[in-house]
Amino acid sequence: MVIKPSKDFDEPGIEFGLTYFEDPGINIPYAVSAWVAVSGLPDFLNKMRQAAKDYKHYIARTQKPEVIEPSEEMDVSSAEIILSSQSNDGINETATKEM
Predict the structure, then answer these.
(1) Which of 31, 54, 35, 55 is CA-nearest to residue 44?
(2) How far apart are CA 79 and CA 82, in angstroms?
(3) Cross-referenced InterPro entries, in alphabetical order (predicted)?
């Protein structure tokens, strides 16, 4: 696999080349290999590109709330556990509980 910037290193965008070879041990019909070359592989690469573009948003949606572990110096009986979560409408909610 070769990955390089599409224009300059500081500009967004990349080009990549992938060379792959596998010997399945049988003859693959021309119709199958033609479909992969013309339709299957380009479709797969387009979906992979879109998934890479959407990954940042996926991580933001599925990020788990931050859990603060009590330190050894902390008195556990009076420690506060702060749970932060982000609701669907984008408003941060904070709940505090005394142990």
Answers:
(1) 35
(2) 10
(3) START-like_dom_sf
